[in-house]
Amino acid sequence: MPVDFETKLINTLRDLRKAIEPRDAAPPPVVVGSSVPSILEIAAEEADKSLLFPTEDVDIAVRSVSQAEKIRALPEWRQSPENPAVLEPVNPDTHLELNIVGVDPDVPIGVSKVMGESHVAFGSLGLIRAETVRLSGETYEIASPESLAVEKLVSLRGGLKSGRDMTVAALCLREIAADPGLRMPAFQEQLARLDPEWRQEASANLALLILEARQGRLMSIGPPVEAIDLAVRCLNREKTGEGPER
Q1: b/e map 220-238, b = 16+ CB within 10 Å
Q2: How far is Cα 27 from Cα 125, in angstroms, rounded to an integer?
Q3: Of 174, 224, 233, 236, which has the maximum CB count within 10 A?
Q4: Claim to verify: residue 156 and residue 188 sit in the same structural domain
Q5: Domain span holding position 242
Q6: 217 with 95, same domain?
Q7: Taking the model in full, what pTM does it have?
Q8: How many domains does the chain have?
Q9: Rg of the chain over CA atoms, in angstroms?
Q10: 110, 168: one domain
């Protein structure tokens, strides 16, 4: 019997844990991408289900080919015949699709490479910082919303994917605005690490985000205007070399 998005997401994360070796020297895989805002919302003490952003898949970032192979071996998924880095759920009524991406900090932003015969594209994802959340009694590593917001702002894609990326960036900005004392310093630090060309890219995409929000083309769960304004002020501070906002 089909289940709702929240249950599918929890089922997917729970079964992904089977591929994590407690004694593995490498950092554990990290959930990145469009499912992160929903994970944060479900994990919140007072979750607002109207803010969930249903997706058909979960992006999981691995640190090595061996981690990717352990995930591929999970019986709940099978490899897509069209894309070996995509794992289709054996039961799509209870689980979400998995997209495996690789993390290689030595790869420049905007570049990726396929490692051996793994069929997994390893990119820098160097902007991503992991944080731990507790969900249904289990802990998971996910991308922090401030790092994911910056990653999306410098890597927006075209077409339908661009719309999804903008919504994810908007939801991450909402998270930052909801707890600026905790998250704003990390957001500013992330922006400060960008090269000038990428700060310019982030600025241009923020302007696009504002335009989409004002014209009603973002989902209604997008951030309040204050969250976007906060991001713009933060980015402008980094451009002018001013210190963090107090």
Answers
A1: ebbbeeebbebbeebbebb
A2: 14
A3: 174
A4: yes
A5: 145-246
A6: no
A7: 0.83
A8: 2
A9: 18
A10: no
